[in-house]
Amino acid sequence: MSEPRVHDVVGIGLGPFNLGLAALLDGAPEDVDAAFLERDAEFAWHEGMLIEGTTLEVPFLADLVTLADPTSPHSYLNYLRETGRIYEFYFYETFQIPRREYNDYLRWVVDRLDACRFEREVTEVRWDDREEWYAVTARNPDTGDRFEYRAENLALGIGSRPHVPEHLRGHPTEDVFHTARYRGSRERVVEADTVTVVGSGQSAAEVFQDLLERQPDHGYRLDWLTRSDGFFPMEYSKLGLQHFTPEYERYVYDLPQAVKDDLIPNQDLLYKGIDPETSAEIYDLLYRRSVGGRDPDVGLFAMTEVRDIEAVNDAYALDCHQWQAEESFVHESEVVILGTGYERPIPAFLEPLEDAIDWDEQGRFGVTEDHRLAVDAPGDVFLQNAEVHTHGVGVPDLGLGCYRNAKFVNRLVGREVYPDDVDTVFQDFSVAQFLDHAPNASRAEGSETPPTPTQDD
User: Fold this and answer.
1) For residues 286 and 215, is the Cβ–Cβ distance under 8 A?
2) Contact 443, 426 (CB under 8 A)
């Protein structure tokens, strides 16, 4: 089957970022013909981590549209109005909303848009030189039916996938699995005698907290291991959060790639640590469990790498190495839950475009300042969360996703439909920016102003 018309843009993948693009396009005065393809049968956002009590780590204003267009009918506040929850939220008095409600909001927006196509797994994308459009081939994963789409531009938003290091693979998935599968596997977990969580990011912390709360009813031993220096909180100060702004993103983009490759991996606590509230709740629960000299039957151990997992009788032996003291030990557990992060591999369906893509020295996408794939084809490929290496740690941020989508819409329409936000923070990141704002500062004698970066349109 094919859609004979040529779409202005076809989105591949339907997570919050491409859904936000669809919502902003729906609110543009100009008619933009768009289709967004998703391989799943229905919308679901991190379903395995929709644990009761967990919240978004950003304020509700970082919904799909508000930071670009507060009047949009697809805003979170309008969702509350339309679903009869506006007064309940008024008295809730909290900026961080329940994660389950955010998922419900996203599904509400999906139902309001005509551009979403489910059960469409993209298998190939190529550029047709003769017709000058992208030819997108998709299939229904269940029936095998094929679909063909034509597009002048693409929006690549396939998201990330759970990462399990190779040396920890090969075990029954009901016993050793990624945190992304936790909610669907919880009944099996609480039946075990021993449970171990590996990793110290927010997902691992939320799983550990949920299991800690359920522990008295089931009686399992619960351990938490991480190779990180400690169970440290995510940076959440107001000045620290200004790293998630257009200004900081532009500053990072202008840095030499070698500097970025050194900088970005060392900014983990800007986005990979534990939410301070989650950390506090875990500690308070442990404190209450220890009243009267009781043992919570819990272990927390940092600076420890799990080098291997081996099946032993009815459990698994974890080969552990405390790297600071250079001591090794074996830790046994019936269930192992891996909070080992996510990865963003290059999708196989881009293979026909491989020779046209500008790759960097490490085989990563070349990216323009305005988040487009550097590709030798007239049609744009808008990137959604595939450019951390060029734009920095703010790329996965939901709020900056709205800013990015506003730029995409403006480019598709050919004029400024949504404002291009500038000067949004109280601090400066580049020397040139500081000199513009500080009348008592000037460039040092003999120092040259770096050239302004250029990009191909």
Assistant:
1) no
2) no
What is the number of other CB atoms lying within 10 angstroms of the CB of residue 440? 4
- Asked whether residue 135 falls in the same domain as residue 168, the answer is no
Closest CA to 408 of 388, 382, 386: 382
Q: Do 41 and 89 fall within a single domain?
A: yes
Query: What's the first-to-final CA gap in the chain, in angstroms?
Result: 34
Q: Are strands 315-322 and 304-312 parallel, antiparallel or unpaired?
A: antiparallel
Regarding whether 384 and 294 lie in a shared domain, the answer is no
Q: How many residues does the chain have?
A: 457
Give the other-Cβ count within 10 Å of 352's Cβ: 13
Nearest to 19 by CA among 126, 181, 139, 159: 159
User: With left for phi above 0 and alpha for psi between -120 and 50, is residue 30 left, alpha or beta?
Assistant: beta
- Give residue 134's Cα distance to chain centre: 26
Check: CB of residue 19 under 8 Å from CB of residue 109.
yes
Residue in the structure block whose two tokens are 């290496």: 389
Task: Provide the pLDDT confidence category of residue 121 given band limits of 50, 70 and 90.
Answer: very high
Q: Which of 120-124, 160-164, 184-188, 236-240 has the least mean pLDDT?
A: 236-240
User: Which tokens sit at 348?
Assistant: 């196989």
Q: What is the CATH number of the domain that holds 369?
A: 3.50.50.60
The last residue of one of the domains, among 413, 430, 452, is 413
Rounded distance between C-alpha atoms, residue 328 and residue 323, angstroms: 8
How many structural domains comprise the chain?
2
Question: Does residue 379 share a domain with residue 230?
Answer: no
Is 82 in the same domain as 99? Answer: yes
**Which residue would you say has higher pLDDT here, 455 or 196?**
196
Residues near 181 by Cβ (< 8 Å), separated by ≥ 6? 48, 162, 173
Which of 376, 396, 413 is where one domain is finished? 413
Report the alpha-carbon distance of residue 15 to residue 17 in Å, rounded: 6
- Report which residue type is found at 362: Q
Range of the domain at 409: 2-160+344-413
